[in-house]
Amino acid sequence: MSNESWSHWEGKSEVYQDPLSVSLTQRIAATFGERSPAAGDPLPPLWHWAFFQEPVSAEHLGEDGHPARGRFLPPVDGRNRMWAGGRLDFKRPLRVGVDATRHSTITAIEEKQGKTGALLFVTVRHEYIQDNQLCLREEQDIVYREPSPPKLESAMPLPMLEWSETHCPSSVMLFRYSAVTFNGHRIHYDYPYATEQEGYPGLVVHGPLIATLLVHSFLQNNPDLIPSRFAFRGLRPLIAGGEFQVGGHRREGNKYALWAFDSRGPAQQAEIEYKENT
């Protein structure tokens, strides 16, 4: 299908409000084993992905567990949906327990031919407003790919890292992250579906969960730095039950490169820009 067939979806927008409740914040903190911020405190980076989720009823879900396509995102049938990466500009922290609004717009749709078949790229821009101020601007890259065996290894060389830490998320952690983000995608909790329908060797670790661990690792190892921009890209899936590492190293200027990887090579690549905490 040509790009012109999807062009009328560009510019489609929606607005969603959320009170950034303390109770959901506590559940996110428990999922990551972190202290929960109180009402009025800054929401940690990337925890906003648990909010602004429309509670779609079961009859409006697709076979994969995502909301049926054709509501906000285009109706791309017969393909697997992936969140491939994104870019975020941190303006000021969102605060827990304070009403916020997300303005979302489809800014680009493009079909390309990849090694495994046709790929449809959809870019969605989100702007998060609180107290009439822009707190966060985000672009998400969503990809619809034709069913094909997942890529499980990467030959990309890994650079020398200044730090790394090991994670081994269990199926329980994946279930809890799916729950707090209201993510119904079955590859993260439904083993028969993940292995028999989408061809993975096990449950798939959420890309946003990995990205959140990357940013947390950066903050733990650089407590005097404040993220101002974060960009990440998925290279291949990570499977639950096995260990993987997250780490990073300094680049030129006020940037760090971040990586998530295991014995099969890099799985997620990211770059974070920062400012000094003065």
**Secondary-structure content class:** alpha+beta
| β-sheet strand percentage | 35-45%
Order of helices and strands: EHEEEEEHHHEEEE
The description of the largest β-sheet is: 10 strands, antiparallel
* Helical proportion, percent range: 10-25%
Strand arrangement, major sheet? 1-3-4-5-2-7-10-9-8-6
User: Given the C-alpha coordinates, what overall shape results?
Assistant: globular
Distance between the termini: 52 Å
Could you give the count of β-strands?
10
Low-confidence stretches: none
Summed over residues and divided by their number, the pLDDT gives a mean of 91
Helix segment tally = 4
Structure explained in plain terms:
This protein is an alpha+beta fold and 278 residues long. The protein has four helices and ten strands; from the N terminus they run βαβββββαααββββ. The protein has helices at residues 22-32, 171-180, 191-197, 207-221, and strands at residues 13-18, 80-90, 100-114, 117-130, 133-145, 163-167, 225-234, 244-250, 255-262, 265-276. It has a ten-stranded antiparallel beta sheet, with helices on one face. A hairpin with a 4-residue loop joins strand 8 and strand 9. It is globular, with a radius of gyration of 18 Å. The N and C termini lie far apart (52 Å). The mean pLDDT is 91.
